[in-house]
Amino acid sequence: MNTESLLSWLIGIAILLAFLIPYIRGMKKREARTRLRLAETQATGQDKPLMQHPILNQSVCIGCGICVASCPEGDVLGLINGKATIIHGSHCVGHGLCAENCPVGAIEIGLGDISHREDIPKLSENFESNISGIYIIGELSGLALIRNAIEHGIKAIDHIHQHIGNAGDCEFDVGIVGAGPAGLSAALHARELGLRYVVIDQDNPGGTILQYPRRKLTLVQPVRLPLFGELNKLEYTKEELLDIWQEVIEKHKINLRTHHKLLGVDKNNGCFILKTSGNDILVKKVILSLGRRGTPRKLGVPGEEMGKVMYKLMDAETYRDKKILVVGGGDSAIEAAIGLAGQPGNQVTISYRKPHFFRLKARNETNIERAINEKKLTVLFNSNVKEIRSDKVVLEQDGKCIELDNDFVFIFAGGELPFPLLNSIGIAFGKKIETRE
Ligand SMILES: Cc1cc2nc3c(=O)[nH]c(=O)nc-3n(C[C@H](O)[C@H](O)[C@H](O)COP(=O)(O)OP(=O)(O)OC[C@H]3O[C@@H](n4cnc5c(N)ncnc54)[C@H](O)[C@@H]3O)c2cc1C
Q1: Ligand 1 within 6 A of CB of 141
Q2: Whose CA is nearest to atom 44 of ligand 1?
Q3: 90 lines ligand 1 (CB under 6 A)
Q4: What is the spatial distance between Cα 92 and Cα 172, in angstroms, rounded to a whole number?
């Protein structure tokens, strides 16, 4: 080899390394971040998917990362050792774009083996549970997505309509619990078919959509909403969807009882008795469309019913120059407190019943330490809320009573999942249902 060609080789290799080294370094950094995130989600059990999710064939995966980039929910998948891996499974809502976009067909969407899962009810193809006359639809059945929820509602009502017979002394043919997309679709279809129905919800109508961040873009696969027509735009904002629900509820005078929580189901004289936080309701058939996000846990202190007390933070920017108490020490409480403390004029105090925070995401741990050191907020460890008044909160810390001026209280005390309620009703779990993607 002469000197000229050796030089060209060396220049070629140098150019290659100039691109390759930063690329490999970047890849290693990204992988280290992904491993850290996986360790965090594993520590809190959030790595496990709750509903339909990507099932990855790692021997086929070529590690191109297209699946990671195509997930609209962000951090569900990541690359570890050059292979797609589930990192934050509980954030998966089953869009399936990862499977659609995978160039080598290494991803399927499904529920996997559910034979040992105690959170997927055993259902017939019409969504009837092991208790004849009680149906379970929507996300509670194990399948997420708005289109699935709407279709479940229609299918369950069709089955009830065909088998209703004589409703006897029951007040309603069907009692629908939960007014998210599944329950609302069932109520609309029941109205369409002339069934006597009632729909109750512990909150306002809308279900999980109410909890989405402001203006969140929601992907909806085309589906017919009874008494409304096709939802055929591929993307809606949260607000557009909630406007549609409100429009159909008002136009068709849907028999909806909000702020009625289901506490239990009994049976008497051929009717189910829906035991609610309001009155008991006698129905011939029951549809449970409770979702699986649970009910925020309350503190049970005087004054908690006031409008200034909230269990979620939708938009920190709407709070300025306010005195705010955040109750709780988990990631949601810390994220809310930091968001609120970052707005002009807010005075934020965190009340946490334990002596220190633990099991926080690494990022939240760093941020809260910084916020405390920079005196952006105050933390009262070992403290409990005793009373909420219109302009104050009363706390107890180490046996001492503390009164703080207050405009708003945000409570993040975890949630009660719907499964104990299903257990008390006698619902069986853990067998494959017919799925549709
Ligand atoms: C962040 C996020 C983003 C998402 N994005 C999309 C998306 O882009 N596209 C999409 O198709 N899907 C998306 N989903 C999933 C979709 O929101 C759900 O699959 C869908 O809302 C499920 O509908 P549902 O009616 O089964 O349950 P939910 O919407 O959860 O409604 C359940 C209702 O039951 C009520 N309830 C619960 N317990 C009781 C009780 N004991 N008594 C009375 N009422 C009760 C609740 O208050 C609630 O109103 C997303 C989910 C999340 C969390």
Answers
A1: no
A2: 201
A3: no
A4: 36
Rounded Cα gap, residues 149 and 16, in angstroms: 52
pLDDT value at position 431? 61
Residue 127 lies in a domain: no
Ligand 1 pocket residue status of 242, Cβ below 6 Å: no
CA angle (216, 220, 221) in 5-degree steps: 160
Instruction: Give yes or no for residue 182 CB within 6 A of ligand 1.
Output: yes
> What span, in angstroms and rounded, lies between the C-alpha atoms of 76 and 85?
9
Rounded to 5 degrees, what angle do the CA atoms 354, 360, 361 make?
Answer: 175
Residue 396 burial by Cβ neighbours in a 10 Å radius (0-12, 13-18, 19+): middle
Which ligand 1 atom is the nearest neighbour of the CA of 139? Answer: 26
Quickly count: other Cβ atoms within 10 Å of residue 269's Cβ: 9
Query: Mutation test of ligand 1: which of 75, 93, 211, 246 has the most ligand atoms closer than 8 Å to its C-beta?
Result: 93
Q: Is the CB of 144 under 6 A from ligand 1?
A: yes
For residue 292, which of 150, 96, 142, 113 has the smallest C-alpha distance? 142
How far does the centroid of ligand 1 lie from the alpha carbon of residue 29, in Å?
A: 36
- Measured from the CA of 218, which atom of ligand 1 is nearest? 8
Closest alpha carbon to 221 in 239, 206, 234, 209 = 234
Question: What CATH number has the domain bearing residue 148?
Answer: 3.50.50.60
Question: Which domain does 106 fall in, by range?
Answer: 23-110
Q: Ligand 1 atom 22: the closest Cα is on which residue?
A: 139
Q: What is the pLDDT of residue 435?
A: 40
**311/412 Cα distance (integer angstroms):** 6
| Angstrom distance (rounded) from CA 206 to CA 243 | 10
User: Would you state the pLDDT for residue 437?
Assistant: 37
DSSP structure string for 281-325: EEEEEEEE---SS-EEPP---TTTTSTTEES--S-GGG--S-EEE
Task: Say if 323 falls within a structural domain.
Answer: yes
Last residue of a domain, one of 110, 125, 153: 110
Encoding tokens for residue 210? Answer: 């109410």
pTM listed for this prediction: 0.83
Q: Collect the ranges in the chain with pLDDT lower than 50.
A: 433-437
Task: Give backbone dihedrals phi and psi of 211, rounded to 5 degrees, phi first.
Answer: -90, -10
Q: Which atom of ligand 1 is nearest to the CA of 153?
A: 25
- Shared domain for 197 and 50, answered yes or no, is no
